[in-house]
């Protein structure tokens, strides 16, 4: 336990020294910070009274970590998670979270990883001797793994949402074509589908309708919808409807063609996925089942030869 206590004390001392050096480096305000209160419009109320939406289960901790997250953003970007990439994935996810709030979550995951690494280091130090440098490296490795895990989860969530949107596209396109064929206008058909259907693509349709109600032309709102996705079939659907509205093409025929194209694309994706799964299934067969079969086939002969010798 002496080694574990020494590791903990060393980590706490190093963290305190880093915080002191950080405060000393950022103690003197810059010229922009000194002039800004006199040229910027001051709020009528205190900033402490302004409400801010929380995106984590710990809103107080989130507000306290905002300055730290701004300073840690540079370090997190060096790990491969740039602000542009995070902003794009948040847009693909349809999340109202900002990059700064995501950095706070990423920092909290890193702190959780540091805590897990510290507990693991203490346990290993109590079981067997562990040097100080490997212990510190293990703790830092767990902290970096926590930050990278949050970034990876964001990418997985964005890809999963885009996949669900592609799956929902044929049904949404068919419902729109039926509504247009029944006499509904483009906006009326989109509103009817947004009221009756549920899903990720319907949420993007509602966002496009909200843009159209705010004064943006419907074609431009659909183009923005196409820019908010990385799924080619969904982007083609939105751009095709926008082009049909601008050129006066019969919308029902365009929607039916879009639905058929989406079903064909889904069928091709399913066949490609099946082909990849067949290759993956060969791994246990070649490396597990086949060697076991060979062992069972050769073992009786080898046993007979050994008895004969």
TrEMBL record:
It comes from the Bacteria. GO terms for cellular component: plasma membrane. Residues 174-298 form the Type II secretion system protein GspF domain. The chain crosses the membrane at residues 6-25, 107-125, 131-149, 285-305. Its main location: membrane. It is found in: Cell membrane. InterPro entries: T2SS_GspF_dom, T2SS_GspF_sf. It is a multi-pass membrane protein. This is Tight adherence protein C. It comes from Bogoriella caseilytica. The lineage of its organism: Bacteria, Bacillati, Actinomycetota, Actinomycetes, Micrococcales.
């Amino acid at each position: 336990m002496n080694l574990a206590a020494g590791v903990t004390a060393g980590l706490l001392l190093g963290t305190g020294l880093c915080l002191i050096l950080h405060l000393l480096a950022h103690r003197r305000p810059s010229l922009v910070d000194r002039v800004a209160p006199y040229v910027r419009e001051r709020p009528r109320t205190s900033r402490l009274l302004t409400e801010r939406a929380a995106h984590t289960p710990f809103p107080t901790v989130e507000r306290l970590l905002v300055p730290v997250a701004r300073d840690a953003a540079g370090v997190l970007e060096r790990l491969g998670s740039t602000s542009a990439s995070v902003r794009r994935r948040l847009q693909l996810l349809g999340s109202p979270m900002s990059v700064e709030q995501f950095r706070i979550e990423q920092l909290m995951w890193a702190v959780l990883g540091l805590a897990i690494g510290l507990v693991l280091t203490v346990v290993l130090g109590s079981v067997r001797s562990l040097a100080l440098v490997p212990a510190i490296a293990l703790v830092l490795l767990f902290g970096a793994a926590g930050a990278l895990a949050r970034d990876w989860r964001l990418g997985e969530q964005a890809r999963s949402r885009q996949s669900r949107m592609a799956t929902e596209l044929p049904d949404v396109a068919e419902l729109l074509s039926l509504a247009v064929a029944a006499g509904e206008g483009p906006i009326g058909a989109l509103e009817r589908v947004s009221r009756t259907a549920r899903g990720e693509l319907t949420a993007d349709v509602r966002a496009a309708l909200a843009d159209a109600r705010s004064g943006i032309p419907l074609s431009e709102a659909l183009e923005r919808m196409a820019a908010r996705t990385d799924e080619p079939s969904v982007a083609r659907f939105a751009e095709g409807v926008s082009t049909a509205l601008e050129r006066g093409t019969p919308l029902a025929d365009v929607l039916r063609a879009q639905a058929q194209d989406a079903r064909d694309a889904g069928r091709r994706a399913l066949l490609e996925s099946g082909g990849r799964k067949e290759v993956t299934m060969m791994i246990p067969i070649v490396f597990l089942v086949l060697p076991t079969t060979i062992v069972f086939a050769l073992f009786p002969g080898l046993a007979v030869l050994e008895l004969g010798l």
